[in-house]
TrEMBL record:
NCBIfam families xref list: Rossman fold protein, TIGR00730 family
Pfam family, one: Lysine_decarbox
Origin species: Pedobacter albus
EC numbers on record: 3.2.2.n1
Keyword flag Nucleotide-binding: no
Reactions this protein catalyses: AMP + H2O = D-ribose 5-phosphate + adenine
Designated name of the protein: Cytokinin riboside 5'-monophosphate phosphoribohydrolase
Keywords: Cytokinin biosynthesis, Hydrolase
Broadest EC class assigned to this enzyme: hydrolase
Entries under PANTHER family matching the protein: CYTOKININ RIBOSIDE 5'-MONOPHOSPHATE PHOSPHORIBOHYDROLASE, LYSINE DECARBOXYLASE-LIKE PROTEIN
Length: 235
């Protein structure tokens, strides 16, 4: 078997460890992640993504808020998508799972901390190597974002969504930040520095997200946004 045939065979069997990745051959691995994601997620109905830190403990009040968000969303026929890991992600999946709703996890392969949680539907768990492919899945298949306290990854996903909506690259959908104590300082900085001092954004950009403190308010903002549509239970 030639080197090229070995590489093709490895890609066919998803045996990534056997592949000596070059820039050109890496395209096929990226394509494989897109294809797997599109094939699975294209079958889902309306879903909302819940974001937040993987490090949030079960005893943290924000964990409980995320559980309640998952429950409330599935009550109205939405599925829940998370990054598939522990912490806030686990809580969102838990709320959906315990309420009999559909629970999706887009897990990422990391050298530390990330492992998929047990509340994801077994046939709705996707594994990714590339953050940018994973983010495409979130943007394409989510009807809304509920963003609880998190770290750099949470910030990345939040501002990616705001930027794509602001620039008209994707249709607008509701974005809810949960936790005034956590997000309030950032929102104030955006207003005073980005908007008023440097004029780097427009005033209407502040309307691209909503700041709340409860699961009920977060879910209600999403429900109101889609009141004009008839949403069937997903999956």
């Amino acid at each position: 078997m030639t080197s090229e045939e070995k590489i093709r065979s490895a890609f066919a069997n998803k045996d990534w460890q056997e592949i000596k990745v070059t820039d050109s051959w890496q395209i096929f691995k990226i394509m494989a992640e897109f294809v797997d994601g599109f094939e699975k997620l294209a079958k889902i109905g309306p879903c909302v993504s819940i974001f937040g830190s993987a490090r949030t403990a079960e005893t943290n009040p924000y964990y409980q808020i995320a559980v309640e968000c998952g429950r409330l969303l599935t009550e109205r026929g939405y599925g829940v998508i998370t990054g598939g890991g522990p912490g806030i992600m686990e809580a969102g999946n838990k709320g959906a799972h315990m309420n009999g709703g559909k629970s999706v996890g887009l897990n990422i392969d990391l050298p530390f901390e990330q492992f998929h949680n047990k509340y994801i539907d077994h046939n709705k768990l996707l594994e990714f190597d590339y953050f940018f492919v994973r983010k495409v899945m979130f943007m394409k298949y989510s009807q809304g974002f509920v963003v609880l306290p998190g770290g750099m990854g949470t910030m990345d996903e939040l501002f990616e969504a705001i930027t794509l909506i602001q620039t008209g690259k994707i249709a607008r959908f509701p974005i809810v930040l949960v936790g005034t104590a956590y997000w309030g300082g950032l929102v104030d900085w955006i207003k005073t520095h980005m908007l008023e001092k440097e004029h780097n954004i427009h005033a209407e950009d502040l309307n691209l997200f909503r700041l709340v403190d409860t699961a009920e308010d977060a879910a209600e903002h999403i429900f109101r946004f889609y009141d004009k549509y008839v949403l069937k239970p997903n999956f």
